[in-house]
Amino acid sequence: MTDGPPLAEAVEATADDIATMEIRGAATIARAAAEAVAEQAAETDADTPAAFERTMRHAGRRLYGTRPTAVSLPNALRYTLGRMAGDDVETLRSSLLAATTAFTDRLDRAQRDLGRVGANRIRDGDTVMTHCHSTDALACVEAAVGQGKEVSAIVKETRPRNQGHITATELREMGVDVTLVVDSAARRYLDDADHVLVGADSIAADGGVVNKIGTSGLAVNARERGVPIMVAAQTIKLHPDTLTGHTVEIEMRDESEVIADDARADIGDIAVENPAFDVTPPRYVDAIVTESGQFPPESIVTLMRELFGESADRPWEEPDGTTGSASSA
């Protein structure tokens, strides 16, 4: 537990569950954090505005300290704590509770609304090429199919974990005609595609897209072929703290996903690297589709500021910019 005012049981429990990954996934983490903030606002017995604000910042620090690199977590705190306003405790409490309700309502609608926006870019008879597995990207296809459009898909297998197989399965369940191709064949089949449709793990302030490794190479090839690249991502994936995607730390996964132990022994002494993500520069992206609409990548920073404030805003910090003591998580 951090030093500071007493925290609601819901805040401590949520923080522990996020830290241990009992709660995982961008939207799930964001919802849990917002609901914990609401519990803290409802339960605190702070009797002055200053004490109330201090308690809420403390709750925010406790939650933020669990997994600070999970983009949706600080965004949930920015949205809720950043809208705390008032001259007395009850007004402050009401503003926070209203903000958390608005945020969770937005989460409820986000993927459905995003799908409708993305579907507007897909015409009847179009073929999309996909990479990896993204529920946001699939929501665009599902909405297009729901509008009565006939859609086909070229699905990259997406090694080393073959997430493309999941995408292929879900597209077939929608009634989409699917062709599965090996990753290295993507350039060949781009001539048959009308769009490249991918998701994102996070999006930087300059519109750079961090997504499954292989996305950037696909985008470069698509641009050379004249195939537009659409990125589908809920706004909780926007990363106000990151000016460009190249400053995001890229996760390196276990080498066993790439090569089995016996095969490695046969080859001999080699280095194996298995980066999980890469960065697609904004110049290769035609549109970023969110539940708030579609944006050219260079305009995404405006949406970030509208939703989450200036990129440096951290409403869980003390006025002097300190973050308090470290979390025990």
Automatic annotation (TrEMBL):
The reaction(s) this protein catalyses: alpha-D-ribose 1,5-bisphosphate = D-ribulose 1,5-bisphosphate
Alphabetized UniProt keyword annotations: Carbohydrate metabolism, Isomerase
Example of a GO MF term: ribose 1,5-bisphosphate isomerase activity
EC class of the enzyme, as a word: isomerase
Annotated positions binding substrate: R24, G25, A26, A27, R67, N211, K212, K237
Residues of the active site: C132 (proton acceptor), D201 (proton donor)
Family: Belongs to the eIF-2B alpha/beta/delta subunits family. R15P isomerase subfamily.
More about this protein: Reaction proceeds via a cis-phosphoenolate intermediate.
Descriptive protein name: Ribose 1,5-bisphosphate isomerase
Organism: Halobaculum litoreum
